[in-house]
Amino acid sequence: MISMNPATGEKIREVEEHTGEDTARLVARSGEAFREWREVPLPGRAALMARAGRVLRESRDEYADLMCLEMGKRIAEARAEVDKCAWVCEFYAEQAETFLAPETIETDAGKSYVRHDPLGPVLAVMPWNFPFWQVFRFAAPALTAGNTGLLKHASNVPGCALAIEDVFRRAGFPEGVFTTLMIPSSLVADVLRNPVVQAATLTGSEPAGMSVASEAGRRLKKTVLELGGSDPFIVLADADLEKTAEGAVTGRTINSGQSCIAAKRFIVEKPVFEAFEAALTRRMGRLTVGDPRDPSVDIGPLARQDLVDELDDQVQRSIRAGAVLLLGGRRREGPGFFYEPTVLTHVTPEMPAFREETFGPVAPLVEAEDPEHALRLANDTDFGLGASIWTGDPARGEALAARIEAGCVFVNGIVKSDPRLPFGGVKRSGYGRELSRAGILEFVNRKTVWIA
Ligand code: NAP
């Protein structure tokens, strides 16, 4: 597996892949580790998870540098990501006992209740865009609940994959409780077929999700899928336009635009359309693009050359379909995988910038006649991950939130993940939830016990 520095296009390292035999051995070891790990009382597992949080905080800069180098994450965002991973470890270390406490239910029994037992080895297929966070938000609840984890990380971040395995080793987790498999996606089906593996979670694109879910389905194994999104960002006529435009830029350009919950369609009510368009374009035009290690830079490179090509293709097809380019619309010359901050206006539902997920700093503006039309446009998508609504009247925003088809809706705030809140999608954005109590319950056996 080869990693490249997206800021320069140079090769960083090559990591040897596991063979089919290596993989089978590591999966078997995960099964053996599970038998012992499940017997460790919950406070013991939670204490180790808290230690993983400490390891992350102690080596924050080292891990942040790695993310910056391997996928071009801006250094400030990379450091914040390591801190957030530490938070999710600490959160589950503190809360797991409450979340997993047996639930007593009154029945005809002398005593009846629901226990929360682990399932076994869980395969996690993860993407490169938040190379630490995506893995920890799976691993912190799943491992604390007593499962073991098998990570198949994205092929362009092998250094991060190995570093994460090392976090658990340094924290003192027994060998085999968390294992990185260095395998291409073509070997994922073999792992799913292995009877030792009990369940799978995938964060990534729809094709990858469909492939993993169908293979797991053939073996009757549970899956959780966190797929793409094309989150609407609705601006109502009574919104504070400057504050909203500020939120729009942050919401769109977080992680250089490569976030599943980035704002991807700006749906703006007619009376304020032109004013918002101007405010957004002005702010997008001020963003600096460059070296992700430079703290003054706003937008780093995209993670791979093919992602730049795909994004540019979506922009050009949208322009050919009638969208008007107000800013950017091209890659940056020179080495590295950079794309200029871009604003497209007069975007309509049949255009790629509306229909498809755009994974980069591209802001498509769509005009809505009124709030009802804005709602119809917001829901006119195959995706359903997040949404945000901006208004001077939070109660109005709340009423609209109830009618949005998405896993979460934020009113007067950008969509973000938080260990305390459930995270996941509906429609083609996937199913199941991560984070919060809902997340830890995805990979447990809710076992009913009935005693006469
Ligand atoms: P991707 O190509 O689907 O890759 C994600 C992971 O799936 C990688 O580990 C990849 O391995 C693996 N994979 C790809 N095809 C597979 C297949 N047929 N069978 C089994 N595994 C397969 O997606 P990406 O381009 O890395 O990530 C971007 C996508 O992820 C976007 O759509 C984004 O919205 C979504 N995402 C969603 C969330 C969420 O929480 N909902 C969060 C972040 C990202 P290789 O690298 O070896 O191909």
Characterization of the model:
The chain is an alpha/beta fold. The protein folds into two domains: 225 residues, Aldehyde Dehydrogenase, Chain A, domain 1 (3-Layer(aba) Sandwich), CATH 3.40.605.10; 181 residues, Aldehyde Dehydrogenase, Chain A, domain 2 (3-Layer(aba) Sandwich), CATH 3.40.309. The chain is 42% helix and 19% strand. It has 15 helices and 18 strands. The strands form four sheets. A seven-stranded mixed beta sheet has the order 12-13-14-11-10-15-16, sandwiched between helices. Strands 7-6-5-8-9-17 form a six-stranded mixed beta sheet, with helices on both faces. A three-stranded antiparallel beta sheet has the order 3-4-18, with no helix packed on it. Helix 12 links the parallel strand 13 and strand 14. Helix 3 packs antiparallel against helix 6 and helix 4 runs parallel beside helix 5. The chain is globular and about 65 Å long. The site of NADP nicotinamide-adenine-dinucleotide phosphate has 28 residues, from helix 8.
